[in-house]
Amino acid sequence: MIALGQFLEVLIGGLMSGVLYSLVALGFVLIFKASGVFNFAQGAMVLLAGLALVRSLDLLVAWGFPVWAAIILGIGFAAVIMAITAWLIERFVIGPLVNQDALTLFMSTIGVTFILEGAAQMIFGSDAYPLRLFPTDAWFLFENLFPGGILVNKLDVWGGFIAGILVAGLAIFFERTKTGRALRAVADDHLAAQSVGIPISWIWFVVWLAAGLVALVAATVWGTKLGVQFSITFLALKALPVLIIGGLTSIPGAIVGGLIVGAGEKIAEVFLGSHIGGGIEYWFAYVLALAVLLVRPQGLFGERIIERI
Amino acid sequence: MLYREAGQFKTTYAEDMAIFPIRQDRIALGILLGIAFIGVPLLADFDIWPFGSDYLLRAILLPFLILALAAIGVNILVGYCGQISLGSGAFMAIGAYSAYKLGTGVHIPLTWLDFAISIPPLPVLLAILLGGLTAAVVGILFGIPSLRIKGLYLAVATLAAQFFFDWVFLRVSWFTNYAPSGSVNAPTLDFFGLNVGTPIERYMLCLIFVTAFAVLVKNLVRGNLGRQWMAIRDMDIAAELIGIRPLYAKLTAFAVSSFIIGVAGALWAFVYLGSWEPLAFSIDRSLQLLFMVIIGGLGSIMGSFVGAAFILILPILLNLIPTQLGVPLSTETITHLEFIIFGSLICFLLIKEPHGFARLISIGKEKLRLWPFPY
């Protein structure tokens, strides 16, 4: 008999970590929507943003800045780094490769991944750096209902909160601003968009910048959870099944997919993993994605792919 | 001047359909094979630099041959049939581990039936080929989603195979014969009484495998099946309308590709590594193979070889350069620099020639044909 309290605890923990997957997946969706590039480098961007942030924070605090000023300056510095990265990628990789097929673009982002990983670690160092932006202690909820209560990590709640703000912000940006509209136009058909006067390289820069900033947000949360270190790049791989389940082109899909993957793998690990040998978290998300693909090839929220000859 | 087909008249259909219709190509290939089959062993036998040292054979030629074989397998799926796969590492692992199990004897106790399936240890050659066959069966299973999805969605679906089998070989200790460390040793390489042990013998073994499979695949892709794959790659709906069965074409591509990758995996484990862990076949291996195929040229057997050589040798060269120049850098910085240079070169190549080395070779041939005139 599985205790309801334990189940709820696992479920909430899973949902919350799912939100964190969504944060990484969002960056993928932004770039895929606007340029059709499947950006393998998103994980490396999270690493770069995290390293830039944590190293500049350490330095600023060591110089005697008050903590709040150091945080603002550090985030500003990391944002500038991401802007430079976005410009470089657009200028030197994605720009010249326009109109190539998806596979070539995908491989080029793997090349970018190598460059970013090498550069980030060469400039900012390659150790694991702790980041303390959010509280990481736990709450116990409903102690009167369940024995021992339900353990909820405050960081996870912060993560959910930030993801909510981010999605709302992105939704407003896409729906209400001029650049956002231009972005959607480029996503639909970049040749048509160009012919009505939308500056396409500027739009792609904006998209990569947005993805870089999403990576920065993801880095603050993941960095607090795990410390900023190289293994954070593997998150990119975890975000792939999230994308598939949610649909490659849907921002709400990224969130819902993240929740499903997070909750699913935690529940599977706790209640199923003990029977067939632990560690099934490692592949569960992918098999889940495979199952979803067999039923709905475009994902839960993706646009239906219609093909003509 | 040298590379002209003028005067080479083809009087039979067989001549017209030859793999290498131009005489110079045949001569070049003959010389290449001669060097590979006779030259290298002779040079190694007489200890002539650089073939005298084990380093070249063991660290460069052996992995090059095996990975080229795997790249040919990946090329069938990605280059000829257009189905992107990120799970090649897993299929190498399946080939390696099933060959290992078959080579050391399989014992499956079915306690509820009071019965056990036992297979005595098989000869190594048979084990390697059956390992490939196992990979082919699993490949067919994981190819089924390709009937509904394609492109990058399929790539992620094949990632499921990669991660699932990483886990299986790490956690299910039956596959590693309950080795406590999780690392397993290959059985002695005994081919019909001939014990393959020295680097040059291992090299010859791999060379024979690679040559045989390259000829086989080259003929396969020229034939009926290969044309079906290419039709599916170019436009699957149109292919279906002209009477090609996507089910058959896609699954055969998965099967043949996985078979070759599985054999390459078994060779990689048995002949190159000797003892190995599941980490040897991680996602990095899959990406490496995909790089080889794309840099080499999609849909080209020759390209697979060139791509494999490039991707394999580039990091080795990058590693050698700083020590040769005597640059005082820490090993950590050198590793990171290698990453940056490797990534930049990949991007540069993709931008300059998205169709890979195979395209460069054919452009070069065209130029050579007109030489010394520009056109």
UniProtKB/TrEMBL annotation, chain B:
Single GO cellular component term: plasma membrane
UniProt keyword annotation of Nucleotide-binding present: no
UniProt keyword list: Cell membrane, Membrane, Transmembrane, Transmembrane helix
GO terms of molecular function: branched-chain amino acid transmembrane transporter activity
Membrane topology: Multi-pass membrane protein
Transmembrane segments: 27-44, 56-78, 90-110, 122-144, 151-170, 202-221, 251-271, 291-321
CDD domains linked to this entry: TM_PBP1_LivM_like
Subcellular location: Cell membrane
Protein name per UniProt: ABC transporter permease
